[in-house]
Amino acid sequence: MAIAATEQELHVLAVDDSSVDLAVIAKLLRRSKYRVTTVNSPRRALDLLGLDPNVHMIITDYWMPEMTGYELLKRVKESSELKEIPVVIMSSENVPSRINMCLKEGANDFLIKPVQPSDVSKLRSRVMRR
Amino acid sequence: MEHSRQLGYMKRSLFDQGYLDEQFYQLEELQDEASPNFVEEVVALFFKDSLRLMSNIDQALEKHPRDFHRLDSLMHQLKGSVSSIGALRMKNECTLFKEHCDEQNIEGCQRSFQKVKREHAALRQKLETYFQLLRQAGPAEKATRSGV
């Protein structure tokens, strides 16, 4: 039933190497009633997704030391198990070519940091389609 | 009573003097019953991260040959956290550092970084006082809204 779908708790995986930013994005998402798992690297994100692909959205920082959010996005979209999961990229830099590159690769949205509550409330309708 | 007045005054002056910007209000807005110490926790994370990054920058500034790419990368991370907590004055100094880095101007970077460190120290002192006042004012003041 439609009502049950909207009340289902949606699980978001948040990826950011900055502990400050991770704390903020996790709080923003929890305020919007998402269940949030936080990891500080794309490697950990992929490990977790390998164990439990029951994730309704991935929200990731763009610029991380070992692997960028773009590279993580590519890995997700290349995987038959994971490719349906919406991916949102965050960056402190507003670089149009970077944004286009991510959107072209299948990112569902691109947010400029610091992320605002209004950015997060838009996510549900724009990204989740549930 | 006195504590809450001191608190209000201190907060206004932190904003008026440009130490903090709108983003700090956003953090306060996120503090609620589920996370009653959210702001203080995030600020503590910030100081932990920033001390580490600043130490790495110090080391990188001493290194030969100069690695401006690394300096820029480290400062990018620092500036990110600085923006996230709304530390305006420090953010502006970080921006200047990045400009010197782009120009591969090592003396500029070194001068600029001294300013970054000064702003960091000043901010730390002010926020420590702020949180102390907040604690003394008691639980009623915890969920302070930006208008106070």
TrEMBL record, chain A:
4-aspartylphosphate-modified residues are 61
Q: Which GO terms describe its biological process?
A: cytokinin-activated signaling pathway; phosphorelay signal transduction system
Gene3D superfamilies in the cross-refs: 3.40.50.2300
Per the UniProt record, one Pfam family is Response_reg
Q: Which CDD domains match?
A: REC_typeA_ARR
Residues covered by the Response regulatory domain: 11-128
Keywords on this record? Phosphoprotein, Two-component regulatory system
Q: Which InterPro entries match?
A: ARR-like, CheY-like_superfamily, Sig_transdc_resp-reg_receiver
Give the source's domain of life in one word. Eukaryota
Q: Which PANTHER family match?
A: TWO-COMPONENT RESPONSE REGULATOR (PTHR43874), TWO-COMPONENT RESPONSE REGULATOR ORR5 (PTHR43874:SF72)
Return the protein name: Two-component response regulator ORR6-like isoform X2
- According to its UniProt entry, this protein's organism is Ananas comosus (Pineapple)
Chain's gene name: LOC109727074
TrEMBL record, chain B:
Recorded hits in InterPro entries, A to Z, give:
AHP1-5/YPD1 (IPR045871), HPT_dom_sf (IPR036641), Sig_transdc_His_kin_Hpt_dom (IPR008207)
Q: Which GO terms describe its molecular function?
A: histidine phosphotransfer kinase activity; protein histidine kinase binding
Which keywords describe this protein according to UniProt?
Cytokinin signaling pathway, Phosphoprotein, Two-component regulatory system
Q: Which SUPFAM superfamilies match?
A: Histidine-containing phosphotransfer domain, HPT domain
Give the subcellular location. Cytoplasm, Cytosol; Nucleus
User: Which residues carry the post-translational modification Phosphohistidine, per the record?
Assistant: 76
Q: What is known of its domains?
A: Histidine-containing phosphotransfer domain (HPt) contains an active histidine that mediates the phosphotransfer.
Q: What is this protein called?
A: Histidine-containing phosphotransfer protein
Source species, please?
Ananas comosus (Pineapple)
